[in-house]
Each structure stands twice: as C-alpha cells, then as structure tokens.
Backbone:
C-alpha cells in the first residue's frame, strides 16, 4: 500500500478534516501532518496551488480537497461505487466548496466590508444552498446524501454545518442552518453519533 501523508491545519474542521476523518473511519494508515498558520507562511510557496490540504502518495504531492476526498473515500469505503450515487456525492461536495469559497473570501476583509459581505451572503446564497442541500438529503432518503450510507459527501456537508453553527463567523447568524434546513441539523447529529466518528473526537479531546 502507498505511504500516505495528509497535510492540513491543526483544527477539527475545514477542507482537510474530511480526508483525515474518512481515513480514521476507514482504518487507513496515514501520517496526519498538522501545521500552524505561522508555519504555513513559510511553506506556502512550495505547495502546488499555495493552499492546503494536500496529500502525499509516496513521493507525489496532490492538492484539491474534493479530489483528495474522493481518493481517500474510495480507499475507506466511503465513496459510492455506483456512478449515479457518486454523482450525488460529488454534487454536495462541490456545493459545499462553493460556500467554503464564498465564506473564505470574507475572512480577511476589513470589518465594514466583512459585515456587508457576510450579511449579503447570509441573506442570499447561503440560505438558498442550505435549503437545497436539505432538498438533496430528503431526495436521497433523508439520512445520507448518497448510497443510503455514510460517504465523504456527508462528512463535507457536516463540516460546513458545524462551522456555521459554531458561531465563529461574525454577521452570519449561528441559527442559519436550524432556520433554513433543520434536516441538516439532524444529519449533523447522526454523524456525530457514528461510533467511529464519536470515538475519534473523544480521543482528540483526551490528546
Ligand atoms: N480549492 C482548494 C482550496 C484550498 C484552500 O483555499 N485552502 C485554504 C485552507 S481551507 C488555504 O490553504 N488557505 C491558506 C492560504 O491560502 O494561504 C481545495 O478545495 O483544496
């Protein structure tokens, strides 16, 4: 088996957390390399797209979170084999990526611009995306987004939902998910209770 090393920032969330979590759930051995934002400042220029996450597979380095999610998802048994179910899984991962990009673009704005950009996001596209993700979840059977079982698509949506509900994003109401897409809250609770996911975060708390 190839030697795997996933590099991302040291917090429980974001674009790199899906790949890490998928490998833990699937029992795939890998090196979990976590870097501080300060370290990243001097590393950035050496990385393919000057961004994280990246996965190293033996001596090859590969970027782009959703590509990594599909790759590790296949290894971990968390990516559909059926082409149509895979399409459903990809659709929600890319929809979340749209939102990650839009929210990410506000992170370094000056306070007034940040407020305006986030209020506009919350009043428009974010609510719409959450509602549509809920529609997708219901169409797929209500419990998971594809294949009627846990996939990397579920993990990716969960990361967005957790981020929004954590309240760390000023000017984006922390109840935006609860108001627009309550089924995503139940989905989040379902994932948090998954035995392997719960064990992973319990171990992280103790570490
Ligand atoms: N499309 C890329 C986006 C990657 C990205 O923007 N990563 C952020 C962290 S989530 C990053 O590396 N930020 C640090 C920087 O831009 O210097 C992906 O999906 O992996």
Residues:
């Amino acid at each position: 088996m190839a030697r795997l090393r996933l590099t991302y920032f040291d917090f429980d969330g974001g674009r790199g957390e899906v790949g890490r979590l998928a490998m833990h759930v699937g029992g795939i051995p890998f090196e979990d390399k976590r870097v501080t934002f300060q370290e990243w400042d001097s590393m950035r220029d050496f990385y393919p797209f000057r961004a994280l996450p990246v996965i190293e597979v033996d001596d090859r380095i590969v970027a782009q979170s959703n590509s990594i999610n599909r790759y590790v998802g296949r290894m971990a048994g968390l990516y559909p084999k059926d082409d149509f179910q895979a399409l459903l899984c990809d659709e929600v991962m890319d929809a979340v990526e749209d939102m990650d990009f839009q929210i990410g673009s506000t992170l370094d704005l000056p306070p007034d611009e940040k407020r305006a950009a986030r209020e506009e996001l919350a009043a428009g596209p974010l609510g719409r995306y959450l509602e549509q993700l809920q529609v997708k979840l219901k169409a797929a059977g209500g419990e998971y987004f594809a294949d009627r079982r846990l996939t990397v698509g579920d993990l990716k949506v969960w990361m967005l939902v957790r981020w929004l509900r954590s309240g760390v994003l000023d000017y984006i109401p922390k109840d935006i998910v609860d108001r627009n897409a309550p089924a995503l809250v139940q989905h989040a609770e379902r994932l948090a209770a998954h035995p392997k996911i719960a064990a992973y975060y319990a171990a992280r708390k103790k570490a």
Notes: The mean pLDDT is 98. The pocket of glutathione is lined by residues 14-15, 44, 51-53, 63-66, 97, 104 (CB under 6 Å).
